[in-house]
Amino acid sequence: MEKAKSTKYWESLSRKIQSPTETKNKRPDTSDLEISFLMNFLKADDDVLDIGSGSGLIINKLIDKVGNITAVEKYEGFTRFIVENEKMLVINAEIIGFRMRKLFDAVLCFGVAQCFERDVMADIYKDMYSMIKPGGLLIVRTHCGLEVDKIVDGFSEELQTEYYAEYRQVDKEEAMLRNLGFADVERYDIFPDTLNVWPDTRHFIFVCKKA
Ligand SMILES: C[S@@+](CC[C@H](N)C(=O)[O-])C[C@H]1O[C@@H](n2cnc3c(N)ncnc32)[C@H](O)[C@@H]1O
Predict the structure, then answer these.
(1) Cα(156) to centroid(ligand 1), Å
(2) Is the shortest distance between the CB of 33 and ligand 1 below 6 Å?
(3) What pTM value is reported for the model?
(4) Distance of CA 53 from the midpoint of ligand 1 (Å)
(5) CATH architecture of 4-17+29-209
(6) What percent of the chain has pLDDT above 90?
(7) 191 contacts 27 by C-beta, under 8 angstroms
C-alpha cells in the first residue's frame, strides 16, 4: 500500500492547490532543466506515458515536443492545470496496479517514486516496464538517500503537516530498476543544490533502456 500519510498529503493538497508549482513542496521548479535533459532522449513523434503527472509542470512543456502524451494522475485537483491539447490524454487513476494494453516509446515517472514503499514501487516499476516498447525508455526522477535510506514519516516542520516519503539509497534504487531486465540503466545527477538542500539525499534521474 501507499502510506496513508502520503495519500492524505497529496489528496489534501489537491483540494487546496492554487498554483501548479505548489506540487514542488517549496522546492524550485526545475522543469526547464528537466525538459532540456529529456530532449536528449525523446523524439518528435514519440508516444509518451507519464505516471504521476501532478499539475503538469513537465508535460505541459513537453507536449509540443513529442507525438502524444498519456498522463496518469489520481487527483483532478492537480490535473485541472494540465493543458487542453488534442495530443494529451489525461487519465485520473490510481498508479498502483495501473496498466494499459498499449506500448509506449517512453514512460516517464518524475517525483513519484518516493511516495511509495519499496515493495509497492517495485510492482509499479514492473507495470511500467510492461508498457514500454522494445528499445523504448523508462525515465525516472527520484529523490534518494546517498549512504542509507532516509524515511520521513511524521510531522514535517517545513510543510507544516503530516508527511511520508521514502528516499531510498541510490544504489539500491538503481538495482531495483536493473532487476526489471533493462538492457541498460544510466544514472544522472543534473540538479542544482537549490533543489538538493539536504546533505544526505539527492535527486537523480535514471534512464533505463529496454532491449
Ligand atoms: C511531486 S508530484 C510530481 C508531479 C509531476 N510528475 C512533476 O514532476 O511535477 C507527485 C505526484 O504523484 C501523485 N501520486 C501520489 N500517489 C499517487 C497514487 N497512488 N496514484 C496516482 N498518483 C499519485 C501525486 O498526486 C502527485 O501529483
Answers:
(1) 18
(2) no
(3) 0.97
(4) 6
(5) 3-Layer(aba) Sandwich (3.40)
(6) 88
(7) no
